[in-house]
Amino acid sequence: MTGRLDGKVALITGVGGGMGVEAARLFCAAGAKVVGCDFFEEGARQTEEAVRAEGGEITVMGGVDLGDAQAAKAWIDQAAEVYGGFDILYNNASTQRFAGIEELSVEDWDYTMRNELNLVFYACKAAWPHLKKRGGGVILNVGSIAGLRGVEFMPQNAHGTAKAGVMSLTRQLVVEGAPHGIRANTISPGLIETPNTRTFLADPPENVKRIVLDRIPVGRVGQPADIVNAAIFLASDDATYINGANLVIDGGGSVLG
């Protein structure tokens, strides 16, 4: 993997926790210069320090609310100045609220759309002129298997809708970006072990075991590196003919229906 992204500059959102930490680490290990952001100041600082200690070249800005259009544009513009442009935008950041259709409040719906769909659009819109000026680049958006199918073990009305929107947005970016050398792809994870899911997975409810864990053909839950390694490939020059893909990474669980 080392060297696959040599000479590339990558903007990665949400690097202060979860899969974003691994994204920052592995993108740097693959040779990229990374400019990251996170809503939380402390998480941003910790990631920056940890990756630099490993020899990675990274700058992380904290306190960035990507769900605010002006703040998202300000961060993209600021990030572009660090190395005089960028080649990759990896929209990893998201947060959501879960509830059934009767319990899900309008506020929770709006919160999830803001922080899973709107923030991706804002970042892509702000990045577009920079990528055109660069002569092209790569956009990686994170979807979810919830955007492709109903989910039995947890109601995901807002989350699934937002991620389906991310996939649709990505497809349109393919069409509009191709004349400018901009590629766009989606990565749709299944169940991944992160700090947010670790406690849940340590003692999963019976319905999760039956519906999810016992039906993953590879026999294990996904790890952040499973997602990030795919992102590195899609961002690299080895994937220049991959455009508009939605790469499902769930250990094969989705093929069982």
From TrEMBL:
Alphabetical keyword list:
Oxidoreductase
UniProt organism field? Nostocoides australiense Ben110
Q: InterPro entries annotated for this entry? A: NAD(P)-bd_dom_sf, SDR_DHRS6-like, SDR_fam
The record's Pfam families line, in alphabetical order, gives:
adh_short_C2
List the protein's name: 2-hydroxycyclohexanecarboxyl-CoA dehydrogenase
Q: Does the keyword Hydrolase apply?
A: no
- Which family is this protein grouped under? Belongs to the short-chain dehydrogenases/reductases (SDR) family.
Q: Does the keyword Cytoplasm apply?
A: no
Q: Name one GO molecular function term.
A: oxidoreductase activity
